[in-house]
Design brief:
Strands 11-10-16-7-8-15-12-13 form an eight-stranded antiparallel β-sheet. A six-stranded mixed β-sheet has the order 2-3-1-4-5-6, sandwiched between helices. It is of the alpha+beta class and about 600 residues long. The radius of gyration is 29 Å and the shape is elongated. The longest helix is centred in the C-terminal third of the chain and has 21 residues.
Length: about 600
């Protein structure tokens, strides 16, 4: 019965207690027995538990008998809270009719709370605000309630106040879900339309698509089709999450569950696609599907070149579970064979890097992250490059365009100056500000993505004692005064250290790189010049002094011409050596340069 179904999501900033509240709801409804209960039941990856964030969306069905005597089927769709996974959040919200907005009683409303709230409002969801962590000594529920009231218009005295950790007042949350969230609308007799809001790869069942049935009915003997990719398949299994996968053989309009497709890669069943019946297809797919577009690119190389095959296999397996990861082979003179990988953002890159190291036991070097640039050539062509090494010759370039983002920073008003200084130093353009409450300010900027990805987030956290939070969306490509910064060691360019930088910063960054390399490159038997080149000229230089044998040690007296003759002979030998000598740059030099702070 559709009127007894409630589909809802929990939206919150990182660490506001979303997963803990989900645990309590599962316990209260008896979905999980006390024996099976662990902390953060829905975060089943080790990394999710360690970092305290939800990385993959997950869904679970709960049965709850409300105070009105009816039993309701509650489908909780748990969403990631991190900015890099904004698209997954938008698809998960599209599968719901309502959302619990969880706000930490000690922190108040934060950037991603607001970003996800706006997404929920765009999808016309019913919002139920919940203030969590009221048991903490530093909780200030009345102030936070006023913040939410000015944001949503819900009277402060009607906002639910709970402690998910202690279980205080959690029953009221379930009652509010039943009472305030509308039942799903949909026609069970219409052609099938099912929204894929997540998927994972199972070695036995192929791609398992997490779906919300919008219209129609699906059963195990139907032939189904994905509307964006055109792939057709017979379902291997159809069922619901309780929270383990439980086969039911059938799903009808309004329900949330899974369809095991038997397909071999997650690319075939992308998030946001629509599943329909191949014999009786829907006239048009559900709205909002788009291809996940990588924003940050980096090279991943094995430390030992023998591990190249293992790295390729590991990336292929990771891509089965993570359709947003893209990679292609590339070679570097300095680091050998590796892959150029595209990620949704820095956090996504960090997760992939950790999974490669932990789950596949690989030793890898990750090059400095860069973004995708559009280079307009003098002959009118536009080429897209995601690695500084691919930059065409300067004489051929008419202009270089870089990606800009809309940036929202939430901060207590006392850190206003520190945040402003940090943002303007990174070429940000100030757009405006809002005050959601007297002590907090939202600053809106437009900023080049390349300035954001390196360590902007870390700098922001340290300058605001961890209180500021940020959210960003891609805006557009804009032309900028950019140059390629190349490092030459002994006259040879080192491709792994090339970077695309703003002309005003080229001298400062080049000087910093050269000084660092001077410390790290071991001395040779000849002088090694290290140069930074930008815009066709050398902007910084340092020499690694030669190791010299004391050829005058045996001359303890005698004529000066004898000494000169020996020194001249040594000089000629050094010159000849320099012409044929190769400088081996140690691995540590690359690693240290990649970790070079951009302060």
């Amino acid at each position: 019965m559709a009127e007894h179904i409630r589909n809802f999501s929990i939206i919150a900033h990182i660490d506001h207690g979303k997963s803990t509240l989900a645990d309590r709801l599962l316990q209260l409804t008896g979905t999980i027995s006390p024996r099976e209960m662990t902390e953060q039941v829905l975060d089943d990856m080790d990394l999710e538990r360690e970092k305290g964030v939800t990385i993959k969306a997950s869904a679970v069905r709960m049965l709850y008998t409300a105070q009105d005597g009816n039993t309701y089927e509650l489908n909780l769709i748990d969403t990631p809270g991190h900015v890099d996974f904004g698209y997954e959040v938008s698809r998960a919200l599209a599968a719901c009719e309502g959302a619990l907005l969880v706000v930490d009683a000690t922190q108040g409303v934060e950037a991603q709370t607001l970003a996800n709230l706006y997404l929920a409002l765009e999808n016309d969801l019913e919002i139920i605000p919940v203030i969590n962590k009221i048991d903490l000594a530093s909780a200030r529920p009345d102030e936070v309630a006023k913040e939410i009231e000015s944001l949503l218009g819900t009277p402060a005295d009607q906002i639910l106040r709970v402690s998910a950790k202690e279980g205080t007042n959690v029953e009221a949350v379930l009652e509010a879900v039943v009472r305030e969230i509308p039942p799903p609308q949909g026609d069970p007799t219409a052609p099938l339309r099912a929204l894929v809001f997540d998927s994972h790869y199972d070695p036995y069942k192929g791609v398992v698509a997490y779906v919300r049935i919008v219209d129609g009915t699906v059963s195990a003997d139907d032939t189904l089709m994905l509307m964006a990719t055109g792939a057709s398949f017979k379902p291997v299994e159809i069922g619901v999450f309780t929270p383990h996968m439980t086969p039911t053989g059938k799903l009808t309009a309004g329900e949330v569950g899974y369809i095991a497709t038997g397909l071999k890669t997650v690319r075939d069943a992308r998030v946001g696609d629509t599943i329909t019946n191949a014999q009786r297809p829907a006239p048009e797919p559900l709205l909002g599907y788009r291809h996940p577009k990588p924003m940050v690119f980096a090279g991943i190389y094995p430390v030992e070149s023998d591990d190249y095959e293992d790295l390729r296999d590991a990336l292929a397996k990771l891509q089965l579970n993570d359709a947003a990861l893209v990679y292609e082979p590339e070679t570097s003179q300095a680091l050998g064979f590796g892959f150029r990988c595209g990620f949704l953002g820095m956090f996504h890159m960090e997760i992939v890097q950790e999974r490669l190291e932990r789950e596949y036991g690989l030793d890898i070097v990750v090059t400095a992250p860069s973004v995708e640039y559009q280079v307009v050539l003098r002959d009118g062509r536009t080429v897209v490059i995601d690695s500084p090494a691919e930059m065409p010759d300067e004489a051929e370039i008419a202009e270089i365009r870089e990606p800009w983002v809309k940036l929202q920073i939430f901060t207590p008003t006392e850190f206003y100056g520190a945040v402003m200084e940090l943002a303007t130093k990174r070429r940000a353009v100030f757009v405006g500000q809002e005050y959601p409450s007297p002590e907090r300010v939202v600053l809106n900027f437009e900023m080049p993505l390349s300035e954001l990805i390196v360590d902007f987030f870390d700098q922001l956290k340290s300058r605001t004692r961890g209180y500021a939070s940020l959210d960003y969306q891609f805006l557009e490509y804009r032309a900028g005064d950019l140059v390629k910064l190349t490092i030459l060691v002994n006259g040879e360019p080192v491709d792994a250290m090339a970077a695309i930088v703003h002309r005003d910063e080229a001298y400062h960054k080049g000087q910093k790189l050269v000084s660092k390399l001077k410390e790290l490159i071991p001395r040779q038997l000849f002088t090694v010049p290290i140069q930074a080149v930008a815009g066709g000229r050398v902007i910084s230089r340092a020499n690694v002094k030669a190791l010299r044998k004391d050829v005058l040690a045996k001359c303890y007296g005698g004529d000066v011409t004898r000494k000169k003759k020996l020194l001249e002979k040594q000089k000629r030998g050094k010159k000849r050596m320099k012409m044929v000598g190769q400088v081996e740059i140690p691995q540590e030099a690359f690693l240290a340069v990649l970790r070079l702070g951009e302060d």
